[in-house]
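JOB MANIFEST
job_type = single_chain_structure
chain_count = 1
residues = 259
[input]
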Amino acid sequence: MSLLIAPERVLPTLNADGTRNRIRPRLYDGRLLRARRLAAWALMALFIGLPFARMDGKPVMLLDVAERRFLLFGGTFLATDGVLLMLLMLSIFVTVVLTTAVVGRAWCGWACPQTVYMEFLFRPLERLFEGPREAQLRIDRQGLSGRRLAKNVVYLGLAFGLANVFLSYFVGTDALRRWVFDAPAQHWTGFSVVMVTTGLVFFDFAYFREQMCTVICPYARIQSVLLDPRSLVIGYDERRGEPRSKGKASWTASRSRRA
């Protein structure tokens, strides 16, 4: 039985023959990248620091599912306040939809946790261990190396730390601090949550990566119906970009033709 070969690339992460195409982007610095980096650092600091913050002696955010009690910025909400939670989720959804319609993929590029941690935490560490894009491609061809192994060890440590922060949103930092020094057998539920979350985070950022956006993310699936003719989108200007070269001669010639 012959294989069906697509005439062109179907997904950026998929080759025409169905094999995985690993994306190794080259870093291009600029004003917008620096602004995105600052925004990403602020969001990561917010995620890590929020469980430790206190307001009137209570956690700023605690989602105590076991006790059906949710603390949000000084207010206490019970399970009977589900209507308020529904309104909050609806407000977030409408805000994301309006943002997409007005300024395009602002959520994906600036605030999505997948983008924030992948592009501004895990990829910088990858460049630190493996070098720029060309060096990473060489390691891909050669197979597993000591640099990549060391990188994955650091990734695993980061995944474990993020998993503990994630758990602290549901049990509180005081309980988490006690659990860290107790035997895992005394807190099997919390220990299992941390281990599973660690594995998922490591799998995502070490292997799955961009496929999370192209294959799994529901927001990416419905994004096309959220745009209108005036929405900002990222596109490729063939007149400006072709023929491709390292210099600016083709770009200058393209500008002169359009003028």
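[summary]
The radius of gyration is 23 Å.
The chain has a mean pLDDT of 86.
exit_status = 0
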